[in-house]
TrEMBL record:
A GO cellular component annotation in the UniProt record: cytoplasm
Classification via HAMAP family: UreD
Protein's name according to its UniProt entry: Urease accessory protein UreD
Location(s) in or outside the cell: Cytoplasm
Originating species: Streptomyces platensis
GO molecular function: nickel cation binding
Keywords in alphabetical order: Chaperone, Cytoplasm, Nickel insertion
Function recorded in the entry: Required for maturation of urease via the functional incorporation of the urease nickel metallocenter.
Region annotated Disordered, chain positions: 1-33
Main location: cytoplasm
Homology family: Belongs to the UreD family.
């Protein structure tokens, strides 16, 4: 994996996956990496600034050039990760009225490493009042033999606008995927908005069957939260009747939010479906 490869991992995502209540989180493999990178964006009255941009371990954070008042941070992988036993996290905060976009330089490649123990990657995203935050990483690739648990924990203010895109490729060309568990947990104004868990690869039962992925290998989600959204609509099915995957765009019950879930044979087709879902979500 080249130094420019991006990372993504997660901590245990449910009672089934993690330690019992009150137990200490597993320490991981002695050779595993422990790293927490931090980003804090603030608005100074004119533009969004980055008073904290702290790289750590495999995460190299770099401010990207942008037009306008927003800030964009690119995450560049400084080493191969996540590997089995790693404990990685990103802590990202956009304060009131800040505009922040986070992206990655390349796809993340989850590999087995020195142990079969799960690697974890915890992404914590906090958005203040009248904030715009966009989390738009490149895809995560679950390579054969890998074991990764990825968690997104999102806290949104009532007036914040938020976009999260998650794309996963299950296995490289000609190989089966590793074990990948992902959870998205979102609160808005202190109330639960979304709590969703997905799990793919052995030993998960039926993960590639007709009721789940139907043999597709690219899967993704797009969450759009915006107080101005028109959520008085039925679910929309995209790509129906083709062999190139499909997506469903549906409103969430507890807020001005729409969630798209898509499956496709390739990551390029998956991105097209999610882009179409995003355009539909923002259409008035």
């Amino acid at each position: 994996m080249s130094p420019s490869t991006q990372l993504a991992a997660a901590r245990p995502t449910s009672d089934r996956d993690g330690p019992p209540a009150g137990a200490r989180e597993p320490a991981g493999h002695p050779a595993g990496v422990r790293a927490t990178a931090r980003i804090r964006a603030a608005h100074n009255g004119r533009v969004t600034t980055l008073p904290q941009l702290r790289s750590d371990g495999p995460f190299h954070l770099r401010r990207m050039r942008t037009d306008g008042n927003a800030a964009t941070v690119g995450i560049i992988g400084a080493m191969s990760a996540p590997l089995g036993g790693d404990r990685l996290s990103l802590d990202i905060t956009a304060e009131d009225r800040a505009e922040l976009e986070i992206t990655t330089a390349a796809a993340t490649l989850a590999l087995r490493g020195p142990t079969t123990e799960a690697a974890t990657y915890d992404v914590r995203l906090t958005a203040g009042e009248h904030t715009r935050m966009r989390w738009l990483p490149q895809p995560l690739i679950s390579a054969a033999g890998s074991n990764l648990r990825q968690t997104y924990t999102v806290e949104l203010a009532a007036t914040s606008r938020f976009v999260l895109r998650e794309e996963q490729l299950l296995g490289r060309a000609g190989e089966e995927p590793g074990h990948l568990v992902s959870r998205i947990l979102v609160h808005r104004a202190g109330r639960p908005l979304l709590d969703q868990r997905t799990a793919y690869g052995s030993p998960e039962p039926g993960w590639d069957g007709p009721a789940v992925l139907n043999r597709h290998r690219a899967v993704g989600q797009l969450l759009v939260v915006d107080p101005s959204l028109d959520i008085r609509r039925d679910a929309v099915l995209l790509g129906e009747g083709t062999k190139d995957g499909c997506a469903v765009l549906a409103p969430l019950a507890n807020g001005p939010a729409l969630l798209a879930t898509a499956v496709a044979p390739t990551t390029s087709t998956l991105r097209e479906l999610l882009d179409e879902a995003h355009a539909r979500a923002l259409a008035r």
